[in-house]
Every structure is written in C-alpha cells, then in structure tokens.
TrEMBL record:
Keyword Chaperone included in the entry's annotation: no
Gene3D superfamilies documented for this protein: 3.40.1350.80, BsuBI/PstI restriction endonuclease-like
GO molecular function, one term: DNA binding
Keyword line: Endonuclease, Hydrolase, Nuclease
Protein name, per record: Restriction endonuclease
GO biological processes: DNA restriction-modification system
Residues annotated as domain BsuBI/PstI restriction endonuclease HTH: 23-161
Pfam families: BsuBI_PstI_RE, BsuBI_PstI_RE_N
Domain BsuBI/PstI restriction endonuclease positions: 176-328
Metal-binding in keyword set: no
Domain of life: Bacteria
Native species: Pedobacter aquae
Length: 337
C-alpha cells in the first residue's frame, strides 16, 4: 500500500507508534479511493486522517470493520475530537484549536460529505454540533480489505463526482490563458496579480519590448511557470533560484535590453532599495537593464507612487499606450551604470 506520509517527512508522524503510522496511511488510502484530494503537506494530511478516525471512533486498523457513523449516534464536537486524537494518537493539540478542526482538518471531508454534521442547519460556530461519518461511506469502510474493494467503491459511488475531480475541473475553468510574443501559450491561475502579468506579456511587451522574448515568468501557484534558464545564463543573469527574482523577465536581442518587470498588486514596486538589490545582482549581466513597475490601474499606481525609484519606468495596464518615466531620458531605455 502507498505510504502517503513517511517518518522522515513529518516530525509528529515519526513520533507516533508504528501501529498508528500504519493506521494513518491506511486511512489516507481509503480517503484517496473516496476521491478526497491529498495534495497537502504531510502534517495537514496527518491531521485530516486523525480527525476522520475520531469521527468514526477508529483507534486501530481492526476498528474499520466496526466503524461508527451518524446513524449509530456517534458524533463528536470539535473539542471532543481534540481530546480523542490527543488520547489515542499521540497528539498534543491545544484545546483552543477547536476552530482549526472545523476550518482545516475537516474541511475537505465535510465538503465531500464523507463526514456529516449532526445539525447541518445550525450556526457555523455552534459548539454543540458534532461530526460523524456518512453511513454510505461507513458501509464501504466496514468492507475494507475484502476482495475487489476498490471496484465495490467505484460501483457504490459511481453517481457521486469525487471532490478531487470537482476541484480539478474548477481549477481548469479558472485558468487564465496567456499568449507569449513568440506565439506560445501559458496558463496562469486566476487572480489580479496574474491578470497583470498577462497584460504585461500581451500588451506591454508588444508595444515597448522591441521584439523581446519572455525568459521567465512566475505564477502565484508556480514560481517557475516559464523559465528559459540557459538563455538567462548566457546573459550572465544571477542565480535563477534566487528569491529576488522579478515577476517577469524579457530580453530584446535587437536592443540588447533585459526587462526586469515587477507586477504590483498588493506590494513590491521597484523602490530605491529594490533597485539597489537588483543592480547588485545584475552587475555581471551582458545586457543593459530596463527596470519597470507595472500596475493594473492608476488608483493602484497612486497608492505606491512615493515608493518608486528614480531611473525606472512605470506602465499602467488600463492605459497601455503610455509610460511614466521617472527622470532621465525622454524615451524608454536603460540608464548608464
């Protein structure tokens, strides 16, 4: 069976007995088969597994065959779940963390309705509301280990769309497609920051990029969404893994200009301090550097205007045909070092 968590990946997991470790990994296998997405940290998976076990009064693998569900009257309040997992699974969760049980540990399980609430119409913070396993899933759990169990799960749940599939579909629908100047395409996750990066690539670079090729762009969910590592290394650009990478990097071979562009939504314009950092990091670069701060609109620009460094440029997406030059040359270009 797949090991979803290993002792070397989680300190709290490594401190548990081998029996509890096996129980948690078995639980995650069951939840995985039920279609619960498991793309979380080892600790978050561990917490989800043990709260699930508490909801079914399962202390050892043998207890799967006699799991309790909502019909059996077993429903633990969040404070009771904390007591249960502390007593049986070597945890030391604070009694004041009861809200985390509901908002984090049980969240996916309740959305998928693998775990049901004893009083679903009560207020969100109702302290008397309990949590228990859905009888439909409990019956499958009782048969866990039998021949053809996965096929049994598939047949029983064939009319229920798995949460992992639902979330994947929503993420795909929410993606933002971006066309590179070279004609290639990228897919960003949604959000105003990524909308701005899309505008930089599709609106700024065609206007002011002098045929620039995108060499790097990050995404809020993928820091290295697009990276031309070898081309950056040819320009003697600084270490690609460096935390000071700007949001978008593009290179104009015609001008030998390297554009370092910050997409500002909530923070991060090219300030005097940021400019000094970037100048130090690019001191060996073979190309001339153009520093640009981009905003979605003028109200956002006004919010950060006092922070923007001299000898840099500003571009505002809702006024794409204009640039704001902070001192120096009349036209866009690199400044002498």
């Amino acid at each position: 069976m797949k090991q979803y968590i290993s002792p070397d990946k989680s300190k709290t997991f490594s401190e548990k007995t081998p029996q509890v470790q096996e129980l948690i990994n078995t639980t995650l296998y069951i939840l995985d088969t039920f279609g619960i997405p498991l793309n979380a940290t080892p600790r978050r998976l561990e917490r989800m597994a043990i709260t699930f076990l508490a909801s079914g009064d399962i202390k050892k693998v043998a207890d799967f065959k006699k799991v309790k569900d909502l019909n059996s009257g077993h429903a633990l309040k969040t404070r009771d779940i904390i007591i249960y997992v502390n007593n049986h699974f070597g945890e030391n969760i604070s009694s004041g963390s009861y809200d985390d049980i509901r908002r984090k540990d049980l969240k996916l399980l309740t959305i998928a309705e693998v775990i049901l609430q004893s009083s679903p119409n009560s207020a969100t913070n109702d302290s008397t509301r309990g949590y228990s396993i859905n009888p439909t899933y409990a019956e499958l759990i009782r048969n866990f280990g039998s021949k053809g169990w996965e096929k049994m799960v598939f047949e029983q749940l064939k009319n229920i769309e798995p949460l992992s599939k639902k979330l994947k579909k929503e993420r795909e629908i929410a993606k933002v497609n971006v066309t590179l100047p070279s004609g290639g395409e990228l897919t960003f996750s949604t959000g105003e920051h990524n909308d701005l990066q899309k505008a930089i690539i599709e609106d700024f670079l065609p206007r002011y990029g002098h045929g620039a090729e995108v060499l790097y762009v990050g995404d809020t969910s993928d820091k290295y969404l697009y990276l031309e590592k070898e081309k950056l290394e040819e320009l003697n650009f600084f270490e690609i893994s460096h935390e000071e990478l700007p949001d978008v990097i593009a290179y104009s071979k015609n001008k030998n200009w390297l554009y370092l562009i910050e997409a500002v939504h909530s923070s991060g314009p090219i300030s005097e301090l940021r400019l000094i950092q970037l100048q130090k990091l690019t001191k060996d670069c073979k190309a001339d550097i153009v520093y640009i701060t981009a905003f979605l609109n003028r109200p956002k620009f006004r919010q950060f205007i006092t922070d923007i460094a001299w000898e840099t440029e500003v571009w505002i997406a809702d006024n794409p045909d204009h640039l704001v030059h902070f001192n120096g040359d009349k036209f866009l270009g690199p400044y002498k070092r």
